[in-house]
Amino acid sequence: MTLWDTHGYEGGSRAFSGNDNDFSNNNWSNGKKMNDAANAGKNNCGFWIHMYADAYYKGQGYSLKPNSSDSDFGNNSFSNKASSLNGF
Length: 88
Hints:
Blueprint: E1 2-6, E2 10-15, E3 40-43, E4 49-54, E5 58-64, E6 68-70, E7 84-86
Antiparallel strand pairs: 1-2, 1-3, 3-6, 4-5, 4-7
């Protein structure tokens, strides 16, 4: 599972291979802080990935189906909101 800080899979990215309950200490590949800054994602896993607006899997949620992608989280009212991720 990979997230990007800019829609269209632009800018910094970060790949995940397991759950992360708090993005506050994460950085994008370009060094910028990751918390509340995801705008696109590709789920290359065979299972659902769930993102949440708050740490520890709380708050508004948004999920990506197995083997799917979303180039603009804004279309789903989830731009710049992700603070945790699970499903692995």
